[in-house]
UniProtKB/TrEMBL annotation:
Residues 26-77 are annotated as: Disordered. Residues 1-24 form the signal peptide. Residues 81-211 form the FAS1 domain. This is Fasciclin domain-containing protein. Residues 38-49 have a biased composition (Low complexity).
Amino acid sequence: MRKPRLSKVAVAVTAAALLPLSLAACSDDSDDKDTKSDSSSSAKPSSPDKGSDTSAMSEPFGPACGTVPKSGKGSFDGMSKDPVATAASNNPALSTLVTAVKKAGLVDTLNNTDNLTVFAPTNDAFAKIPKADLDKVLADKEQLTKILTYHVVPQRLKPTQMDNGNFTTLEKSKVKTSGSGESYEVNDASKVVCGNVQTSNANVYIIDTVLMPKS
């Protein structure tokens, strides 16, 4: 039994269909070359990527940063627009600190002073202090002020400045910082759990233990 032969019409139709494809392939080859030459010339200015890496290094870091609200006044963006005491009041994890700052009458001092670094203890940090002792401190304005101002350095500290540092606080005694990368401690006892949080007038390092100045 003989195989049916394609008709001349079918052959012509097939050829007509294939011709544009072959022309397109040729065109694509030349376009690819042009595209490669264009992309190679436009790919040269890759230095901005380094800038973006630098910018990423200035972002907040640490295991507790994930608990910060993603939007609103308590978010990193929201906090960056407010002075530090106001910004802290919008972060639920710092509510005990905010109560202490209000009792000590330090809200205006913190909000109206430029270029600060605040080591901000979390609610859990305050919870490490026996309740009777904490209540006693909260009721003693002089002692409370001494403790809170010990958490404030009158300059904005970048993470790299904290690798091995000693800084005079508003309380007038020094805090020691150590660490590198995204792991830092204050006074060899309190860990930074969310660092380099920006407010309009301060850098904030949220810590897991309340700092106590020497008597």
